[in-house]
Amino acid sequence: MKKMLLGTTALAVASLMALSGCSSRTGTEGGAGGAEAGFAADSLIGVALPSKTSENWVLAGQLFEDGLSEAGFEGDVQYAGASTTVKDQQDQISAMVTKGAKVIIIGAADGGQLATQVSAAKDSGAIVIAYDRLILDTEDVDYYVAYDNFKVGELQGQALLDGMKAKKPEGPYNIELFSGASTDANSAVFFNGAMSVLQPEIDSGNVVVLSGQTDIKQTATADWKAENAQSRMDSLLTSTYGGSGVELDGVLSPNDTLARAIITSVKAAGKPIPIVTGQDSEVESVKSIMAGEQYSTINKDTRNLVTEAISMVSTLQAGDTPEINDDETYDNGVKIVPAYLLDPVIVTKENAAEAYKDDPTLEPLTQQ
């Protein structure tokens, strides 16, 4: 957190593996006790992912299966169930430890409830990599690989301002704020990044959160579920924007699933669609952006993130230290976790064709 507490895949993995021998020796050293010794090239690598709540998580599982196999490892990729997500993930990590996994990559369902399992992994000699979401309150997580999530929030906040100003040159602007699940460590990072941009405008009176709901406890969306965001938006429209002449100019949405739910709510109420941000470049949201409904999303190419995680594993297998580009920012409450951060890209209708030019799924959507 910022100063706070598939052929394409094969090629990308191979390219990063080829570079890992030189890059690994120049990076900041991490906390992996087993990194110096390395391990067998066909070792078991565990990947514990949360439930399939968004397209990026669905894609990640297949990419990990294919990428680990192509790199010569035995992959054990597991998803947690939708209704017993935390318990499932805890049991899956424990099973990976029992099976002798040399590295366990964890996309945390709840980063605050994995300390016991991560400790057991560390005691077994495994190296733990937090993937996309930081694992909290434990010294036993070795590395963190993610997109720069504070920057994601900054980009979302700026996109919200830019979109509103393009639509209505003069303020003040009425907005509402949404954030992700309180169990996801990234939710606060996204929100704080966005508020670092929005708060000065709020303080000046140029931007007004008309409902008064500005605390992250008020803006949180349980389990990242679309129906929860839609229900809250329904309530806000009724309680705050029911009067004539009261216009909603923008909504800060932390991801695409919630953005579409918010837009559905607004349309059902018969109101004009405000500027709505998003994240993850989901197919339906890219279509919405090209149709002029959702204003923006964030391109955090899952292929690149999985490739970087597998590159870390290959470097560790060779007994080297993975490349790190941030050893100051990500405080999990017990330690600063060495991180490798990738750069997110803001996407609007204006730059979508360029942003997705190499994406076989999304590029065609920008040509329609």
Structural overview:
This protein is α/β, with parallel strands linked by helices. The chain has 2 domains: 178 residues, Rossmann fold (3-Layer(aba) Sandwich); 162 residues, Response regulator (Rossmann fold, 3-Layer(aba) Sandwich), CATH 3.40.50.2300. The chain contains 12 helices and 12 strands. The strands form 3 sheets. It has a 6-stranded parallel sheet, sandwiched between helices. Strand 6, helix 6 and strand 7 form a beta-alpha-beta unit. Helix 1 crosses helix 11 and helix 3 packs parallel to helix 4. The protein is elongated and about 65 Å long. The N terminus is likely disordered.
Defining key terms:
368 residues; alpha/beta; Rossmann fold; 2 domains; four-stranded parallel beta sheet
Quick structural gist:
This protein has 368 residues and is of the alpha/beta class. It contains twelve helices and twelve strands. 42% of the residues lie in helices and 13% in strands.
Task: Draw up the topology in text.
Blueprint: H1 7-23, E1 44-49, H2 55-70, E2 74-79, H3 85-99, E3 103-106, H4 115-123, E4 127-131, E5 143-147, H5 149-167, E6 173-177, H6 185-204, E7 207-209, H7 216-219, H8 226-240, E8 250-252, H9 256-268, E9 275-276, H10 283-290, E10 297-299, H11 302-317, E11 339-342, E12 345-347, H12 352-355
Parallel strand pairs: 1-2, 1-3, 3-4, 4-5, 5-11, 6-7, 6-8, 8-9
Antiparallel strand pairs: 10-12
